[in-house]
Design brief:
- The protein has helices at 3-29, 63-74, 104-131, 136-146, 152-156, 183-196, 205-220; strands at 32-40, 55-56, 59-62, 96-101, 161-163, 167-181, 228-244, 249-254, 259-263, 271-272, 278-279, 295-298, 303-305.
- With 309 residues, the chain is an alpha+beta fold.
- The chain has 7 helices and 13 strands.
- It is 37% helix and 25% strand.
- The strands form 3 sheets. Strands 6, 7, 8, 10, 12 and 13 form a 6-stranded mixed beta sheet that branches.
Amino acid sequence: MSLYHAVDRLHHCVAELESELDILQQQILSLRLLAARVFELPAVEKGKESDPLTQISVEQRVGQSALQLALAHFSRLFMQHQSEKISTKSAVRLPGAICLQVDKEQSALLQQQVERINTLKKQLEQIITVESGLPSEERFEFVHTHQRGLITLNAYRSLVLLDNPDSVRFGWANKHIIKNVGRDEILEKLQKSLNAGRAQAPWSREQWAEKVAQEIESIKSLPDSARLKIKRPVKVQPIARVWNSSSQKQTQLACPSPLIVLCKDTASVPVLGELLNYDADNVNHRHKPLAQPLFMLIPRLHLYTDRLA
């Protein structure tokens, strides 16, 4: 697909997404609100995106106040919808849930609308990341040239709809992205860095080349049986634990946006838990399995090995 057609599809997709989000808002406002609880988190300021999060203060909103925040959050696609001081590299998160009373027809219509919106969100991501044909470093300029101020992190994020759960409780998750990697893959990556002849602050070109060369030797010196893993930390994120008694099953979901909960009547409103303040120094692990010992090999790549030379 040509870049011209990608631009045209981008405009149409964003316009359609905005229109469908407006329809969703009207649908929700026409329904009876049974319960709502959302949790406002501190905004990430520009320039502080990479700062470690050791404490997060939570401010709870309930009822109509929570509903209005949720509706505004669903429709927040552009920078113009938020303060200029807030980072556009970090998505705004608003965990929580809104519980709506629906009959069968209303439930079906709402589910269809959420499905349409999520399909458009996937199309938008496909247009920007694949159909544009652009490498990742050029996509920001492409998006902001043709859809100025679009916050892709917010626009890509799917809406989650739940049907009659028994309880929805909230918490925090500390995770790592763990990926097994091959020795040749890492050596190729390091060799490309060496051949590029560029430096990374605060090193000079010569110092950087020497550093990368040492990293290459570290990989080559490992025994053949050594395994390599990338273990990259992911910032703490709010989660929801959804319990359904009929299936005796608990599902854990990432919860950056309020969950839309469908209820038959007032008797079927789920128990909504609270989200407490996050404090990294007081995290209690319910179950933390013993992990295989790993040794840090190349810190900047988050590269570990299970054995040393």
